[in-house]
């Protein structure tokens, strides 16, 4: 159906944000979408640091944004805002890199005090990049995401249901089918 770029803006190698995104990627694949995961922390630091848009990895990332029909943006919240790593990537993209795209913003954090970070910090930046539609996003508390010793991810039931709903709304906006509640 649609090609979705799933972007984790977390700088952590053991990121709950990235794990949550990869979990939601599976739901989108089951709904018929092609999903391309992108962990910003895997991009060459020197290319990010020097804002080198001609670096092959950055040029490839820009091409991924161009090819995508939809973009999921996930970030941990630090000091009431999205990650600096995500900000660095967004600054490297062309001004209207999201033109015509459907976007799903997601955030994770340790406190409900940061729940509005999506709407007051991230959404305005994404909106300035020209998307056709930004679907309702979701903030998930870190304590609602657990990773087992074997790497399995568990999301608290209420958060899992909310994430399924926003993911399904994003999928519908892309023209995808939704899953039955039992597969949540």
From TrEMBL:
Its EC number is 1.5.1.38. The keyword Oxidoreductase applies. The gene is ssuE. Keywords: Flavoprotein, FMN, Oxidoreductase. It comes from Streptomyces lusitanus. The keyword Aminoacyl-tRNA synthetase does not apply. One of its GO terms (molecular function) is FMN reductase (NADPH) activity. It is an enzyme of class 1 (oxidoreductase). This is NADPH-dependent FMN reductase. Residues 3-143 form the NADPH-dependent FMN reductase-like domain.
């Amino acid at each position: 159906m649609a090609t979705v770029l799933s972007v984790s803006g977390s700088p952590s190698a053991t990121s709950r944000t990235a794990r949550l995104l990869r979990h939601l990627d599976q739901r989108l694949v089951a709904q018929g979408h092609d999903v391309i995961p992108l962990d910003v922390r895997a991009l060459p630091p020197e290319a990010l640091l020097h804002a080198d848009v001609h670096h092959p990895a950055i040029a490839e990332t820009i091409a991924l944004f161009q090819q995508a029909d939809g973009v999921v943006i996930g970030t941990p919240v630090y000091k009431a805002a999205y990650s600096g790593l995500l900000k660095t990537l967004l600054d490297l993209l062309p001004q209207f890199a999201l033109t015509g795209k459907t976007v799903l913003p997601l955030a994770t954090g340790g406190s409900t005090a940061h729940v509005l970070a999506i709407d007051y910090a991230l959404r305005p930046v994404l909106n300035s990049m020209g998307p056709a539609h930004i679907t309702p996003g979701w903030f998930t508390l870190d304590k609602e995401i657990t990773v087992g010793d074997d790497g399995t991810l568990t999301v608290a039931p209420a958060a899992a249901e909310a994430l399924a709903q926003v993911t399904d709304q994003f999928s519908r906006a892309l023209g995808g089918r939704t899953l039955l509640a039992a597969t949540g």
